[in-house]
Amino acid sequence: MSVSIPFNKPFLTGKETEYIEKAVRTGKISGNGYFTQECQKWFCDRYGFLKTLLATSCTDALEMCAILSEVKPGDEVIVPSYTFVSTALAFVREGADIVFADSYPDNPNIDADAVEGLITERTKAIVPVHYAGVSCDMDKLRSLADKYSLLLIEDAAQGIDSHYTSPLTGKRSPLGSIGDLAAFSFHETKNIISGEGGMLAINNDRFIRRSEIIWEKGTNRAEFFRGEVNKYGWVDTGSSFLPSEVIAAFLMAQCESVDNIQSRRKAIWERYYQRLAPVSAKGCFNMPVIPDYAENNAHMFYIVCNGLEERSALMRHLKEYGILAVSHYLSLHKSEYYKDKYKGGELPNCDRFADSLLRLPLFYELTDEQVDYICDTVEEYFG
């Protein structure tokens, strides 16, 4: 059977083309115009970031983090092995050695209790990834970063509109607001989208001026446009990280609809959970775990099968019924590029998720009837 339920379908609010036309009519579509500045202000106002800079991708935002962290050859950066390659690659490009950390046994996030044992005198930064928009244990990671004078850089690619609540203080903080720096993604598979796109969030004021220079190709051009200097020039390293106004205009329409988008995605997630919990209770697979300190932003719904063979068989079964379910990351410490460089031990939890985690379709226009059909098909497979 051909696929009738895709894994993802980008959602359009209806205002994207209107805003793109408005951007074109302003006569400035090259970036850092009206919509760029409006988006950046929106994120700061809603989530309390000190400063934000839109980027062409989350990869670019992470590369800006790596430049700002001033890592150099010989420095070490602690990164979960179960993540997308960009989390590590950004720091590899600056010459850093990657120290890969394992996941928790019950969820794919970095095992915060194991991180301290990975810190050496060469460690420069810890980079947690909020997998599926579910927060890492940020109290423990923030405490370690402060104790050893390390940078804490959040890969919040999947974490928009999700929060961490500190068990110590009770404070509820948006993901991306706890680390010194954070990177977000607006790829078409994310909750709010711009096709390709990302954002750097800055929460430590010592990075504000330099981040803007790096963003603008190593120049103080942004200061010039604000009238703070009478000419601009090349003052630092950097690249062309800022997106066009067309991308920012598209993203602004999404930002304005975030509450509506999130409400529907959470309803879909909850329907999956309620329907599949009885099957999981029989030992057929494990369900997502949301720690007490974390929230669920409904970025994805996944199940963890009992091994690679069973996951592959379930994927084939779903595809036979027109449903596209997909696996996710391979463990980076076993990747073709890094396996010969890796000097650490086994990371069994990362490997288990790499072999067993299966993502089910989740997008705004997925109907309740389609969710039920997917769940019925999963139930049928397990008899």
Summarize the structure.
Belongs to the DegT/DnrJ/EryC1 family. It comes from Candidatus Caccoplasma merdipullorum. This protein has 13 helices and eleven strands.
Could you characterize what this model shows?
- Helices cover about 35% and strands about 15% of the residues.
- The protein is built from 13 helices and eleven strands.
- It has a seven-stranded mixed β-sheet, sandwiched between helices. The chain has a two-stranded antiparallel sheet with strand order 6-7. Strands 10-11 form a two-stranded antiparallel ribbon.
- Helix 2 (about 35-45) runs parallel beside helix 9 (about 245-255).
- The longest helix has 24 residues, at about 260-280.
- The relative contact order is 0.17.
Mean pLDDT: 97
Q: The biggest beta sheet, please? A: 7 strands, mixed
SSE order: HHEHEHEHEHEEEEEHHHHEHHEH
**Count of runs of 4 or more consecutive helical residues:** 13
Shape: globular
User: Strand tally, please?
Assistant: 11
CA-CA gap between termini? 21 Å
Which value, in Å, is the CA radius of gyration?
Answer: 21 Å
Spatial order of the strands forming the largest sheet: 1-9-8-5-4-2-3
SS-based class: alpha/beta
What proportion of the residues form beta strands (DSSP E)?
5-15%
Ranges where pLDDT stays below 50 over 5 or more residues in a row are none
Relative helix content: 25-40%
Task: Based on the model shown, name its key terms.
transferase, 383 residues, 7-stranded mixed β-sheet, 13 helices, PyrdxlP-dep_Trfase_major, alpha/beta, 11 strands, aminotransferase, globular
